[in-house]
Amino acid sequence: MQCVSISDNGALTAIDSAVCDYVLLTQTELNSLQSNNLVSALNELFAFDTATFALINSSALVAFITAHCIGRIVRVMGKT
Prior knowledge:
The chain is of the alpha+beta class.
């Protein structure tokens, strides 16, 4: 990886600076960055989040129990 700057005539010149606007990469470095970014993006999109699963699971359980109880109450009220 090499920091470069663009001169007024459009030529690239190598610079030794900690902060640079443009960077030249080798093909190996580019492939490494692309594969790492792809893996991290897929992990962020499809990772299993246990907190979200617990929230959905518990809300579904509460909804089932509530609907079951209401159904029983309606059934008992219908028989009387």
